[in-house]
Amino acid sequence: MTDTSTREPRHFARMFVLWLVVAGVADALFYTLAGPHVPPGTMTTSAKDNQFDFNVLLVIALPVLIAVWIYMGYAIVMWRSTRKGVAEPVGGAVARGNKGVQFAWIASTSTIVMGLFVFGTVALINGAGSGGGEGPNPVWSPNSKAPLQVQVIGQQWKFTYRYPSFGGFETTQLILPNNTTIEFHVTSLDVTHDFWAYQLGVKADANPQLDNVAYTTTRETGSVTVRCDELCGIWHGAMYNYGRVISPAAFEAWATATQRASVANTKLLPPYALTYVPDANGADGGLYPTNVDPYSASEVYGAKVAAS
Amino acid sequence: MSVIDAVPVTDSEPTEDYVNLGVFGRLTHRRGWLSQHLGTAVIGFVLGYLLGHWLGNVVAGGYSYVQNSGQNNVADTGGLLLGVLGWLFGAGALNYPIAKMMGREPAEERFDPSWTRYFRYTADHKVVGLQYIFSVLTFLFTGGLLAMAIRTELLSPTSHAFGPGTYIAIVSEHGTVMMMMATSIVVGPFGNWLVPLMIGARRTAFPRVEAFSFWTFTAGYLVIMSALFYGGFPTGWTGYAPLQTQAGAGMMSYLVGFAVIGMGMMAAGFNLAVTIVTCRAPGLTWGRLPIFVWSVLATAALLTLATPTLVAGGFLGILDRTAQTAFYVNEHGGSSYLWQNLFWFFGHPEVYIMALPGFGIVAEMLPVFTRKPLFAYKVAAAGMLGVALLSFFVWQHHLFQSGINPDMRPLFMLTTELISIPTGFIYLVGLGTLYKAKIRFEIPMLFALALFFNFLIGGVTGVFLSDVPVNVQVHGSFFVLAHFHYTIMGGLVFAFFGGIYYWFPKMTGKMMNKTLGKIHFWMMFIFFNLTFFPMFIIGLLGQPRRVFEYAQNLQTLNDIASVSAFFLGASFVVFVANFVWSIFINPVAAPPNPWDSLGLEWQTPSPVPYYNFERIPVIMADPYHYSEPNAPQLADLGVGSDRTDEKVEVGK
Ligand code: HEM
Ligand SMILES: [Cu+2]
Ligand SMILES: [Cu+2]
To answer: For chain A, what is the domain count?
Structure first.
């Protein structure tokens, strides 16, 4: 819309300049000052990539928000009926639409959206699922030849972790080696939970009878908070625990020591599998007739046994 | 176009003033307290509940329900279902079909001038609209009280106001009541009240279906509230199985409640869609349809087509919990994903059921308060239909981390981001209409502008959520919570209150108090933002939804949200005060067209007669010819109307 009247101030030019300045400053401030601190930090590849993604989205979003706010603010100030000398509005065809403006609007929003789609898809594929749950047969996986498998078992109302490459022992603490690709296998023994390892940038639903795989690669040592992120009953709010990323050597030492120390416990556990049928005497309250032992009949119930 | 002949309003008395039901006695349109009304509906609900419960125990008393040994929900289900039936029967909603089934000709409903008509089953769309308003406000304030309880609990990260079971029951009840309310908050009251007036019709297409939708909606309220007597349910409004299968009897209130509300939603949507398609006055071409009616049409399509999935999903859940099927039980060959898919296949169209009518309201009000025609009208209408269509193809964005169809995530990312294009059209329309306008900041306009502010934040964060890598970080957290409160509360609920201030003069003939209205608006706007904006940060910092314990360092932000939430709650007290003051205590008569609107609804006499239009009007232009010196005449209301021979004034 170009202004034809000569006395009329050049509204769009004013708004554009204001927008350019404010949006430029806001983006620059955000990206340099806040950006590096945006959660979840940079402890893993997926955390770092997702942080970068968030920052890019916000750098695109801020100018959009600011454009609308400036326009509305301008309209409210300039075109309020109480302002002295505000012009009488003009109705009719000119006010009912403007092909150029409409086309520009649709074209620009479509461009942004398509750009975001390409950006998000590339990030998702390059990021090997970006740390999100990818189901039992991940379509995108990292290049690493020997990722460390860690199983996450959700149950009302705790998370435990099993390490199949160390005899399948089970712990309540998530300990991971640094600079290693981790392959999480997330499952549940009862209802749907969600494994959210905050600093790792990993999130995957824990579904009973299903194996949900998520990948990430650790980059820094430090502590990790794990919270359940899917409502799972009354103690959902208290379903959290902690973990650490430590040096590979320290991890090796910890894992072998724990494996040795928990031999007796591990024997009592069901053999490592990607999913488990709930314990006949356990939380399910007698899902199976007493003469059925779900573990010995794991083939019958279709629980898969780990490949290695 | 020729003037349609007037359809004479029948004044002839029906021969019988009652329906003879033989052994059941007579059902009458009698107007004393002895006839049917809200009270008999309540009695019907209670008796129906007792009967159904007893029957259920007779049928299935010996069964035990696997996951909760020693209990089955047959009796509870029977109780709730027959309770609803009893409610409808007691209200008189079934008189007509029963009489028809018995081969009798029911008496025609006649206008009831007494105020008690608001407590009765009636097919008068203007009464139903007002009944809806009081009901959705009841829903809204019930849900609001529960929200206050939630924010009380979250004042402290570790010390608790409620036990965990109570807390989760409160959270679930809050979410479900609010979602149910939001399905109907605009379509129920304004859709029913305004659409016939806006399209020049005397009634909706199926007045009894319209009344049925209202009475099932209210029955749904009783059912969902009954959860509290069962100790609540633990699943939130999303009702995920297998938690759903494992939960206690309160779960039945959720499943039956959503099914019942769903019936009402389908009925309301179907009726309004047919009304808009078939009952438009001559001359009211699609290109002249008020934009609010377009939004109701798009919403009605969603209500009719999406809700059956919810009802069917609830039905399977009911079977799982009563007949011991295993649709949602993974261990027995069912799938918990099935519920998630069914629920969100309904759930995402549902979120647009909660957005489009709000857009319609503000788009309808903008021209009035800017004195300009609606900008890009066709784009607006096309956008609404586009949103409605696309909303069926995005549902798995709620399941990005669930492990379902991981290879489909880019597709659902694309569709979700695409839907923000037609959603964004409302901004094109809004900003274009504001251009070189003469904006009058009346209360309804304040609410409309607030929608543009709030929904922008809601919509933009929606795009963040649809980006899968970012979704990994924010899914299931307070970020999502903030997102949908910004869209639903910041959008729809703001639009609803704007609509009340805007149309109440027409609906009740009384003006709302402006000062109180301003206080209400500013409190609501400021504290809404102070309550929900911090939640984006809280979510990013790692607080999942629906928890009662959170990290110590999040207490300040949570406390800001909580305290603001209490003030937000207080703003509704101001609204209620204004409402009671302006309608009952100190009513100020409203001028016939207080905002100088060109809308057809404002051209009818006040109060609007029972039959709306003495003659069906002939529409000659769309209602947006503001600031146009040679504007065409809007409509020919015909001789015999209140405004005999008077042209509707256009072009102011
Ligand atoms: C610009 C358009 C929108 C986009 C792109 C969008 C995107 C999303 C996405 C991706 C999610 C899933 C978040 C997650 O759980 O991980 C979501 C959740 C949600 N959105 Fe939107 N949204 C938009 C508009 C709306 C509107 C208009 C409403 C309602 C009026 C709405 C209501 C909701 C609700 C209720 C949820 C959460 C449901 C729950 O988990 O309880 N959204 N949105
Ligand atoms: Cu949980
Ligand atoms: Cu959705």
So the answer is: 2
Q: How far is CA B420 from the centre of its chain?
A: 22
- Asked whether residue B477 is domain-assigned, the answer is yes
Per the domain annotation, does B335 fall within a domain? yes
Residue A253 lies in a domain: yes
Do B53 and B153 lie in a common domain?
A: no
Average pLDDT taken over every residue of chain A: 86
User: Does one domain contain both A170 and A258?
Assistant: yes
For residues A166 and A243, state if they share a domain.
Answer: yes
Given A38, A81, A121, which is nearest B413 (Cβ)? A121
Query: Quick one: pLDDT band at residue A156, thresholds 50, 70, 90?
Result: confident
Which residues 388-427 of B have a C-beta within 8 angstroms of A?
400-407, 409-410, 413-414, 417-418, 420-421, 424-425, 427
For the stretch B391-444, pLDDT in tens is 999 999 999 999 998 889 999 999 999 999 999 999 999 999 999 999 999 999
- Give the up-direction half-sphere exposure of residue B437: CA atoms within 13 A in the CB hemisphere: 28
pLDDT at B633: 85
With a cut of 50, say whether residue B647 has pLDDT above it.
no
Domain boundaries, position B39? 14-105
Atom of ligand 1 nearest to the CA of B182: 30
In a shared domain, residues A120 and A154: no
Q: What is the arithmetic mean of pLDDT over B283-293?
A: 94
pLDDT of residue B15: 44
Q: Which three-class secondary structure string do you get for B580-632?
A: HHHHHHCCCECCCCCCCCCCHHHHCCCCCCCCCCCCCCEECCCCCCCCCCCCC
Q: Is residue B314's pLDDT more than 70?
A: yes
Query: ipTM beyond 0.90?
Result: no
DSSP string, B454-475: HHHHHHHHHHHHHSHHHHHHHT
A246, part of any domain: yes
Is residue A27 located within the same domain as residue A117?
Answer: yes
Cα–Cα distance list, B547 to A228, B163, B479 (Å): 9, 12, 14
pLDDT digits (tens, 9 = 90+) for B151-160: 999 999 988 8
| Residue B45 forms part of a structural domain | yes
Share of chain B above pLDDT 70, in %: 91
pLDDT at B158: 86
Instruction: Indicate if B69 and B182 belong to the same structural domain.
Output: no
Please tell me whether residues B338 and B236 are part of one structural domain. Answer: yes
User: Residues of chain B with pLDDT > 90: what percent?
Assistant: 67
Q: How many CA atoms lie within 13 A of A114 on its CB side?
A: 6
Q: What is the pTM of this model?
A: 0.90
Distant-in-sequence contacts of A248-256, Cβ < 8 A, 24+ apart: A248/A177, A248/A178, A248/A179, A248/A180, A250/A177, A251/A175, A251/A176, A251/A177, A251/A178, A251/A180, A252/A177, A254/A175, A255/A163, A255/A166, A255/A175, A256/A166
Query: What distance in Å separates the CA atoms of residue B224 and residue B232, rounded to the nearest whole number?
Result: 9
Residues 239-278 of A with CB under 8 A from B: 240, 277-278
Average pLDDT over residues A191-197: 94
Same domain flag for B97 and B227? no
Please give the share of chain A, as a percent, with pLDDT higher than 70. 88
What pLDDT shows up at residue B486?
A: 96
Are residues A117 and A156 located together in one domain of the fold?
no
- Check residue B22 and give its pLDDT: 53
Structural domain boundaries enclosing A62: 10-78+107-126
Residue B237 Cα: closest atom of ligand 1: 41
Task: State residue B23's pLDDT score.
Answer: 54
Closest ligand to C-alpha of residue A191 is 2
CB contact under 8 A, A233 and B168: yes
Enumerate residues lining ligand 1, CB below 6 A.
B 238, 351, 354-355, 397-398, 416, 419-420, 423, 459, 462-463, 465-466, 471, 475-476, 480, 483-484, 487-488, 491-492
Q: What is the CATH number of the domain that holds A199?
A: 2.60.40.420
